[in-house]
Amino acid sequence: MSQMKLTGLTYQQNILVYFLIFLSGNTILAYGHFGSQVNLWVLFLGMFIPFFLGLKGLKIEKKSAVPQYLQDSFSVPPSWILVFLVFMAAILRLAQADIPGYWPLPDEGLNAFNSVELSHQWNWTIFYGPSQHPPLFYWTLGLFFKWVSPSKFSLHLFPLIFSFFSLMLGVLASGMVFSRSFTFLFFVLMAFSFWPLYMGETCSFVAPFVFWEFLVFFLLALLFKKGSSGGGKYLLIMLSLCVALGFWIGIAWPVVAVVAVFSTLFFLKNRRMGNFYDFYIFLFPIFLSAGYFIFLSVEQKNGAHILSLLAFGTGTDWKKQFIDSASNFSALVWGCDTQN
Known about the structure:
Elements: H1 11-31, H2 36-56, H3 79-95, H4 106-120, H5 136-147, H6 152-177, H7 180-192, H8 194-201, H9 206-226, H10 232-246, H11 253-271, H12 276-299, H13 304-308, H14 318-330
Helix pairs in contact: 1-2, 3-6, 4-5, 6-7, 6-8, 6-9, 7-8, 9-10, 9-11, 10-11, 10-12, 11-12
């Protein structure tokens, strides 16, 4: 087990002390209304200095040591508590579908408009809106509006469904790979943390995107657990098709695809399952989908939004770029300039 000891403290007490320090610092930065000078002092004294002190005292044991995410670090609550927490996670998400006084964001209105148009008159538009998003989110929402009448409630119900099933799918995959205590921790964070809840509140491509990420994670976990014992080739095909389809959900999918491809290559090499001919078959749908996406992007002049997200790619001066970059960092702890 890794050691990171403060004087006179056990490993568990030491971890608790660091946790409370980081929690206090993050709480002050996130919810306190102080000036920049106070925030900077809290950042250095409550975050940076404890972090580097912890790194200084970190001692890693030999490689044969069992990783922490495979160890049961604490006892998981009984089944009735787990059922109650799942119920609360579902209720919490359902309650977000009709928040009094909440009005859809401009992007949500644009997404709803495009999808309502699809529900009345189908078309095969590939890239939507100023951000040139891929079509699967809009197509799925359009089909959803054929089943549930468009309204403020249904506009929020759509991402909430994806949010809840992302949670369930992620827990199933985590349970096949990690220990029970690590899986429980994953469940609690996914069920009740701010960002997983917020993605279910906003009708955008993010909720389906995260759901599809967890579907790929789930298939990877199945492959790692059962691939060498039987059905491995069918899992490879299913995983390949899911990775290939992801390019049509969001522009960030190439990052997920790279992780999935290298994870699969690592598995095939370690387990010696089949031969590399299977890996080439696995890659074929992915390259075909990515190639067709690039072809349509060039043909329809897609890419302006992607280029606008690149640092120093928009023609802004270095001072403005520095403020934008600093704002992206400060947003994680104490807020940002909302104009960036």
